[in-house]
Amino acid sequence: MIKLTPPLGWNSWNTFGANIDEELIKKSADAMVESGLKDCGYEYVVIDDCWAEMKRDENHRLVASKTKFPGGMKAVADYVHGKGLKFGMYSCAGPLTCAGYPASYEHEFIDAQTFAEWGVDLLKYDYCYHSSIVPGHILYKRMGLALANCGRDILFSACSWGADDTKEWIKSTGAHMWRSTGDINDSWESIKSLALSQLPVQAYNGLGSFNDMDMLVVGMHAKGLVGLKGCSDTEYRTHFSLWALVNSPLMIGCDIREMSEETKKILMNKDVLAINQDAAGRQPYMLGSDMERPIIAKHLENGDIAIGLFNLGDNDVYMHFSPEMLGLSISTGKTLKLTELWTQESETIVNGLCFHTMKPHDCRIYRAVIEDAE
Ligand code: GLA
Fold first, then answer.
1. Is 290 a known active-site residue?
2. Are both 326 and 269 inside the same structural domain?
């Protein structure tokens, strides 16, 4: 198994789109180390779409753009590896990528070979222009087999946006993570709608093949390709907490060469990251069924419980839960000691309840330790 917990890294798409080149990738790798992101566990530097020449070479191999990557892709991979990081690339199950560059349909094995020779450690595999004859599960099985036989450990990041009932077949393809949503953009509406679409599919999420809710927009502040309106730091904190708690891979999408202090605090909250990276990788679940104000829990490997309160609505709201809802009935003689992971505030359960009045778009995320009730 290449990676047992949700992959962490940075991807070029959200901010840079087609405006990528070897300088940007190298500088982003530098920033991943110098900013402290690497020490927090972020490891993959991923080049998304638009990296290739428009034509394959005479041996039918993909070729890196000579203007964007004059030193070739192997040199970029070597640089990233030299920083102690891993290197990711992008292709597509159709004959063209979503942006119209050559892609891997009917070239799966030769492309996997090329990626292996370049030193690629992760392949994001998109679904644009896919065949209407060959079903999606076969297209992803082809690349899954090609990667499994290319002689290098390459993490398979499937990106079919949940289409064609992806959840039913994706684990059979060997994908280590799979895009379970459409594309994100840098707005609260997008964050909210992706989050709501994911709560019902948590049964498919878990160790070895995580539901990927798309790259983060934390810290974009309306800059870059998918930067629309931008969000407040509170909204970015809620976005990050949600993605982390429900085991999504955390692929940063902002310009990591220029992060604000608040952006760094969000992306590098080690307590929240520890919940995302919990070794047990258990299925997150909802307490209750209020989709506008979800309360989500996840049982952790050491017996603690992670619990998040999310006010996705536009008004102040009173939210509460009881230990009973997590399986701790009064008869167990147990209660919870809670630490809120953005403020480090400690809380106890009062009269059987944890309760808060929550501001719009705000969240609280706890690590709860089980202890004897008084
Ligand atoms: C699709 C994917 C995005 C991005 C673009 C690139 O839309 O879902 O994440 O990779 O293609 O063209």
1. no
2. no
